[in-house]
Every structure is written in C-alpha cells, then in structure tokens.
Amino acid sequence: MSTPARSKNAGPAQGEPLGLTIDNVRKVYASRGRETFEAVKGMNMDIRPGELISLLGPSGCGKTTTLRMIAGLETVTSGDIRIGDTRINDLPPGKRNVGVGFESYALYPPLNIKENLAYGLKARKEPNADEQAEAIAKRLDMEDLLPMRPASLSSGQKQRVALARALIRKPPVLLLDEPLGHLDASARQRVRRELKLLQREFGYTTIVVTHDQLEAMSLSDRIAVMNGGIIQQFDTPDEIFDNPANLFVADFVGEPSINLFDGEAVVRDGKVFAKVGEGMVETTVESATNGQKVTVGIRPSDCRTGVESGLVSDVVVFEDLLEFGQASVEVRGTAKRALVQTPAEEKYEPGDTVVFAAPPARVYLFNAESGDRVR
Ligand SMILES: Nc1ncnc2c1ncn2[C@@H]1O[C@H](COP(=O)(O)OP(=O)(O)OP(=O)(O)O)[C@@H](O)[C@H]1O
C-alpha cells in the first residue's frame, strides 16, 4: 500500500504504517490466581496498514482491555497480537512501536506543553522539533496551550495534548482511548475532522476506542461493534448501519434507535412479510419460514407514510423538527411505541391514525431467540 503524502512541517515518518492482527485473543482477569472475569472472549481482527478502525460498544464490553493488551499495559491470556509480522504479546510496551494517546499518560510537569510535545522528537534527534510541535498544535487548535504547564490544564485540554503527543511521534500503530471525550461539542467536531485528516496524511494504522457512535461513524474505515467481550460485527460504517449482523448491532447503532417489535414471518406467493400487531410489511428476506417468531426492526428514518398497507398506528406525540417531523405512535395490536419520521409537509395531531411501512430491503428480521439476522 502506498503511503499518503506527508506535510512538510511534520517531518519524516518514524516508520511505514504496519498492519495489526488480533488472532483469537482472550483476556481473563484474575485476582490472587483465581480467574475473575473474561473481558475479551476470542477476538479476531485483521487491520490493514493505514486503516482507522473504531472499537465501539457499551461500557464494560472490553474495548479498553483490548487497547491495553495491544499497548502492552495488560497481559494477553491467550491468542496472538501481531504488528506486521512480529508477534508482540511478550514485548514490553516501549518496544512495540505503538503510540498511545491515553489521557492519563504522564506529561513532564516542569516542561511547558510545547517542550513536552517536542521532547520525544529531540530525544530522537529529529530536526525542527519545535516547529513540529507548533504545527501540530495549530492543527489541533491548541496553540494557546503551548506555553502552559501540564498542572494548569483542564481535562479537555489534557486530552488534546495527549492526542498531539501521540500524533507527533508518528508511530506505525496509534491507539486512542476516547480521544475526544472531554471536548465540548464544537471543539469535538473540529478536532475530529483534524484527527481524520492527520491520520490520512501520515497513514498511521489507528485504533480508536469510543462509545460515541457518531464519532465512530465519521472517523472510521471500519468499526468493530463489541458487546460482552465479543465482536458482534466488524465492517464499514455503511454496512454496520445498512446491514446489521444481529439485533444488538441494529439496536446499538442508529440515532434515534431502531423500532423493534415482536412479530411473525408470513410467507405468501414466495414473498416474506413481517406481521406486527394488526399490520404487515413486505421484506426482502428469503430464508424465513411461515409462522416463524421474529423480532422486526424498522429504523425511524426508513418509515414511509401514505402507504396503502403497513403497520397501523395512532399518534401519541408529534414533533415538528422543521426539516422533517417525528411522530411517536402506538402500533395497534402491540404494546409498543414506535418513532416514525415523516416528511416536513405532513403535520399530525395526537390521536391521528398513521399507516407506515418501509422499503422491503429496510425491514430487518431477527431470530426471536438468538437475535441473529434472518436474511
Ligand atoms: N483489572 C480488572 N479486574 C477484573 N475485571 C476487570 C478489570 N479491568 C476491567 N475489568 C472488567 O472487564 C470488563 C471490560 O472492561 P473494559 O474497561 O475493557 O470495558 P470498556 O468497554 O472499555 O468500558 P468503558 O467504556 O466503561 O471503559 C468490565 O466488566 C470490567 O469491569
């Protein structure tokens, strides 16, 4: 793979980006020799050189544990982690060629931020260390922090410094744990864009841990959605959203959340319909059997009103959001509320009846017991 063009100010890269392979990796935490908790349960990932991937999942799903194992801050119970062709399981953190942007990573208190940023470069006798520190600070919108001492920084500022410090070292593999978590909304967007640009320019292979799906969607080439120590799906953002592997992924990704109903597959004339309450919607599913119990998923943004047949519902609340409307409805024959996004020109009152469906390819069926997608 070719390396993207580098900016003049940033200096030469320390090394070419390398791929990262995680092969059947497990992490069992133990205390006094007794196994206490299996945080990562047989994880596999093949990350290409220069790729940016996110580990996305709810609190406790094993994201940070995975990152810490790659960084060498946590032992690997079994399985292999390789950077390029080198197995790194037993290498000390400093020998792994991995850059970490953990916020808690110590800065040198007596040095100001500019000196902190330039320190590692100077130690490696890189030319223009100060200029590089200034350039990266400018890119991350933090030039005002350069003369400050670490002790006087807020948590959001510390986070930016940690990110700058990780980026300036140009490691072949870069690990970032919630890199934008403490930033306010507007700084978050700016730094996010800049992070993506810098990552593209330098071509670092990058793993970002986040529980923020928008961050994962906007930054990543691929996302690993995790739950309970297991990767549920490892795919491009579009595929994760459009083609969820299971109920967990469908429910975790998407804002507002997907509508989920208990339903039944109805096979008629070779077509599969989803029966929900009093209504039915067509699907493109092929493998369901007639009468099969399923969970039916329809995203609010996929709902189409003004259809002849579909799910029959009564409006409870209607919000006019200018560019579109959002009706909270009770679907007849179910005990469930659903959210239906409607065209801007349609207005509803509580008590109005709405019949809605979705394009057949956007009606998802999941096995009612396992949650696996029925395709
Ligand atoms: N040292 C430890 N000993 C025992 N269990 C641990 C230890 N560290 C983490 N765990 C447990 O392992 C699981 C995964 O933790 P981890 O920090 O990797 O999750 P996470 O997905 O990063 O969550 P968060 O977003 O809250 O940081 C959690 O249930 C946690 O309680």
From TrEMBL:
Record keywords: ATP-binding, Cell membrane, Membrane, Nucleotide-binding, Translocase, Transport
InterPro entries: AAA+_ATPase, ABC_transporter-like_ATP-bd, ABC_transporter-like_CS, ABC_transpr_MalK/UgpC-like, Mo/tungstate-bd_C_term_dom, NA-bd_OB-fold, P-loop_NTPase
GO molecular function terms attached to this record: ATP binding
ABC transporter domain mapped to chain residues: 20-253
Keyword Cell membrane: yes
Signal peptide: none
Any Pfam family: ABC_tran
Classification via Gene3D superfamilies: 2.40.50.100, Nucleic acid-binding proteins, P-loop containing nucleotide triphosphate hydrolases
Entries under SMART domains matching the protein: AAA
Domain of life according to the entry: Bacteria
Keyword Transport in annotation: yes
Protein name: ABC transporter ATP-binding protein
Lineage: Bacteria, Bacillati, Actinomycetota, Actinomycetes, Micrococcales
